C-alpha cells in the first residue's frame, strides 16, 4: 500500500512536469496546446540527439536543450500561435492539432517507430532508502524534486515578479494591459517559451525514465490535461496536486491489472469532473 | 508648432463596420481640464479609444506636441504621456490593488507620481492595497483606475465616464481630487454624461453629436438651451 | 416597397437538380461499375458523414470536439454485436447503432459540457479513450485484438457489396438532408445567428445550452451511423481502428479544406481528400505531414475554404441555409442576424 502510494507520487512528479506548460499557456492566453504531448516527445528525442555531442551526460544535454527550447517556444508563439488567438478557440485548436500531426510524422520519418531512451548511467540504477524497507530510485526522486521546484518557481514568478504580474494582467484584460504599455505579443511569447522549457525538461526525464517513441504524444497530452483539470485552474499547486492524484490512481489501477492503470486514471478524472467540475483547487472569482 | 499638448485634426474613426467619428477637431493644453459631453452613441468613447491607439486612425489626425501619433500602438502612446482611465474601470481582477497600480507604471515613465504619493491622494487605497482590486466598492475601484493611469506619469489624463454608476457624494469626492492633479500642469479630459458636473469641473467643453462636434467653447459661457440644442440636435 | 424572403436562388436550384441527377446515376453504379469503385465510395462516404458531423459541431455549434470517434466506434461495435450475437441483419443494425450512439451522447454530454473551449476538445478525447479501453476489456466482441463481422457470411460477395454501396449512398443522402433540414429549422437558424452575432453569443442562456445539446446528439447519431456503415463494409473491427483519433484528424482536414461552417464544405473537402488519398498516400508519413501542414495553412489564411472560394466565384450559395431578403432589385443577405435581434 505505502509502496503503491510512493510509486504513484513519484509518477505524479513526472506528470506534473508534463502538465505545467499546458496550465501556463492556458492560464496566460487561453491557448489549449493539443500538441503538448508531441512537444514532450520531441524534447525527449532532442535530448537523445544532444547527449552524444556533450559526452553522454544527461545533465549537460539538459543545459544545452533548455535554452534551445526557450528560443523555439518564443519563436513558435511569435511566428505562428499568436495569429491563432482570439475569442474563437477553433483556430488555435486546429493549428496545434495540425502541429501534433506534423511533429509525429516528422519524428517517425527521422527516428522510425521504435522506442528510444536516453542513457543515464548510474542515475537510473541508483536508489535511496527512505527508512524501513522503502526504497526509491534516485531518478524518480530527482524528477519529483524537479517538479516540486518547477511548481514553486512558477508560483513565485506569477505572484512576486513584474513578469508574473504582466502574465496575469494580459490574461485578465489584454486591451487594458496594452494601454499600460504591455506588448502582449511579446508577453505571450515569453509564456510559451517558459512552457517549452518545462516541456523539454519533461521530455528529457521521460527519455531517461522510460522511452520515447513518435506515437506517444497523444497519451502524454491526456495525462497532462487530466492533471490540470483534476487540480483545478486556481494555481500551479492545483496542477501539482492533480498530477499526484493521477499518478496514484494509475498506480492503484496497475496494481489490479497491468492493463488497467491508464484506464483507471481516466475514470478518476471523469469522477472528479462529475463531483468537482472546477477541480480540487478552483479559481476564485475576483 | 502648436502650444497644445494634444490635438486632433479632422479625426475620422470607425467602430466595427460603422463610421463613428466624422472629422473631429480638438485640442487640449497643459494644465487644462476639458469636458467632452454628448448623448449615448455620439462617439465619445470611440474618440477616447482613437486617442489611445485602441481604435486605428490616420497618423496625422492625432498629434502629440505636433508629432503624428494616430494609429500608434497603445503602448507607444502611453510612453508619450497619454493615459486613459477606461470606461467601466476595468481593473485586473486577479491583481491586488497595489499590483493594479504597479501595472500602471509598466511603461516606466519618470515623473512625480509614485505609490506613496498616490496613497497620499487616496489614503483608503493604502489600507486596502493587499486585497483584489475588484473587491472594493465602486468609488474605491474608480480611485484605483485613476491611480493606475496616474502611475504612468502622464502629461494628459483621459477619464472615460468615471462617474458612471457611482453615488453623487462619491462622484464629488473623485472630482474634487482632479484640481490637485491638474495643478502640476497635467491636462485632463473628462467624458461625462452629467452636463452640470462637466460644466463645473472643466474650463472648456466639447459637445459631440453623431460623431461631430456640435458645440465648443468656455464651459461657463453656455446656457442650458445652447447645450441641450447641441446635445440632442433639437 | 415590397420585400420577399427568398430561401433559394437560381444557382442553388441548379445545384440541387444536379445533385438529384448525380444520386440517380450513382444509384445505378452497381449495374455498370467496378466493385473497387463501390468499396472506395463506401469508405469515403464514412469519412464524409463523419466530417459533416464534425462540421456541424465545430462550425455551427462552436464545439471543437476531438472525440467524435467515441460514437463512431460505438456505432461500429453496436452493429457488430447486434449482428454477431443477436442475429440482427447488419444493414438493419446501422440505424439502430446510430440511435444507440445518439442515446449514449446524452450522458456523455453531461461530462463533456462541463469543460469549455479547448478543454472541451481534450475532454472529449479522454472520453473516447475510455470507450476504447473499456471495449478492449469486453471479450464477447474480441477484446483488445478485435473480431470479424460473421453475420454477413451467408451472402454472396456481389450482393453484399452492392447492398453496402446502396446503403452507403442512402446514408450520405440522409446525412446531407439531416444537416440541411436541421440548419434550416428554427433551431438551426438560431444557432447560426448565435454563431454570427457576438451579442447573442455573450448572452448565452438556457436556450443556447439546449441547442448545443441538440447539435451534439445529432452529431453522435451521424457518427454512429458512419461507424456502423464503415465496419459493415470493412468486416473487421478492433478498438484501435474504431476509436482512433485519426478519424477526427481526417474530419478536421476535410472540413478545413472544404470550408468550415458551410454545408457543402465537407462534400468538397471529402472529394479533395479522396483524390489526395488516391494519388499521394504512397508517400506515407510525408503525406500525413502534408495534410497536417495544409490544415494549418487553411486555418490561418483561407478560413472560408474551397467552398467559400467557389461560392464567391460563382456568386451564389450552393446550398443556402440562410434566408435572403429581397428589397426591390437588390438582394440583401441577412446572415440571419435579424432573427437574433428580434429575440434579444
Number of strands of chain A: 2
Mean pLDDT of chain A: 93
- The top-level CATH class of chain A is Mainly Alpha
Rounded to an integer in angstroms, the radius of gyration calculated over CA atoms of chain A is: 19 Å
**Beta-strand percentage of chain A?**
under 5%
Instruction: Please report the distance between the alpha carbons of the first and last residues of chain B.
Output: 38 Å
The percent range for helix content of chain A is over 70%
CATH topology of chain A: ABC transporter involved in vitamin B12 uptake, BtuC
Across the major sheet of chain B, the strand order is 6-7-8-3-9-10
CATH architecture of chain A: Orthogonal Bundle
Q: Number of folding domains of chain B?
A: 1
Q: Remind me, CATH topology of chain B?
A: Rossmann fold
- Rg calc of chain B: 17 Å
Cα shape of chain A: globular
Tally of individual domains of chain A? 1
Q: Please, what is the average pLDDT of chain B?
A: 92
Poorly predicted tracts of residues of chain A: none
**What overall geometry of chain B do the principal axes of the alpha carbons give?**
globular
Order of helices and strands of chain A: HHHHEEHHHHHHH
Question: How would you characterize this protein structure?
Answer:
- The complex is a heterotrimer of chains A (286), B (234) and C (344).
- By secondary structure, chain A is mostly helical.
- Helix content of chain A is 71%, strand content 2%.
- Chain A is globular and about 60 Å long.
- Chain B has one domain (6-232): 3-Layer(aba) Sandwich (Rossmann fold).
- Chain C has one domain.
- Chain C is built from 16 helices and 5 strands.
- Chain C is globular.
- Classes of the chains: A mainly alpha (286), B alpha/beta (234), C mainly alpha (344).
- At the A-C interface, helix 4, helix 9 and helix 11 of A face helix 6, helix 12 and helix 14 of C.
